[in-house]
Amino acid sequence: MKNAIGVFDSGVGGLTVAREIMRQLPNETIYYFGDVKNCPYGDKTKDEIIKNTEKAVEFLINQGVKMIVLACNTATAAALEYLQDRYNLPIIGVVQPGARRAIQATENNNVLVLGTQFTADSKVYDKEIKNINSDIVVYDKACPTFCPFIEAEGNLVEGATQKLLKDVLFDTKLLDIDTVVLGCTHYPILKKDIEEYYGNNIKVISSGHEAARDVSTVLGYAKLLQKKLNKTEHKFFISKESEHFNNIASKWLKHTIKAEVVDI
Ligand code: DGL
Q1: Which HAMAP family does the entry mention (predicted)?
Q2: Fewer CB near the terminus (10 Å): N or C of the chain?
């Protein structure tokens, strides 16, 4: 029986989404795929991102998942529509849920989206938000140094995050924004620091966390929610051996994780 939720990211970022799904839906089983071999996605072309994402999604489908969550804004921007047209199981991304939450949160209609170079260039948030409310002004800011910083756990070095935020975000201080969307699933790791950077008076939204709520809506609607009795073990797959992935995953999810390496 197909009963796991497939969660995909280029690396560790989607673990912030997986963790939130585990918290909100404790009866569900997650099969996580981190494409560490091809990470980062943010500086790749649309075709490369589609190709890599599709391989991982096929792998997860072959493992018997009942739905797919693209827990990666970059993959969502590049590949969501393509995959939804191609496969007939529910596939959701993180952009729509984040966009909807931003529309709900902003009071002055000025929203800043932080993301990878690809996500910022794609203007995917701008499009999603404007489809619903064209009065909202969306500023896209590419933060290409954030992912490598988080992957290298630079945030554990005293003062390093504050310096990074100052270096990258200084020009956004001039914008009259009241809402910031973390348009990359790695960024929730820096959420508190980003809130502080903007003086704690701006709403900071994690697209991934919002997506976790959508998972229960989609599963509920499709009558696919898992009963406690059938709970099985979460599984983690990576496309290249990575102690680093295992260490971060174990730390973030608070139990020992040894991901299985698969050649896709
Ligand atoms: N975590 C991915 C996202 O949400 C990006 C990381 C990468 O560049 O691969 O966009």
Answers
A1: Glu_racemase
A2: N
Direct distance between the N- and C-terminal alpha carbons of the chain, in angstroms, rounded to an integer = 23
- Which residue positions form the known binding site? 9-10, 41-42, 73-74, 185-186
Give bridge partners of residue 29 from the DSSP assignment.
4
The model carries a pTM of 0.95
Could you tell me the sign of the dihedral formed by the alpha carbons of 157, 163, 164, 165, in that order?
positive
Do 53 and 264 contact (CB within 8 A), yes or no? no
Which residue from 124, 129, 123 is spatially nearest to 103, judged by alpha carbons? 129
Residue to mutate (ligand 1; options 53, 72, 113, 207; most atoms within 8 A of CB): 72
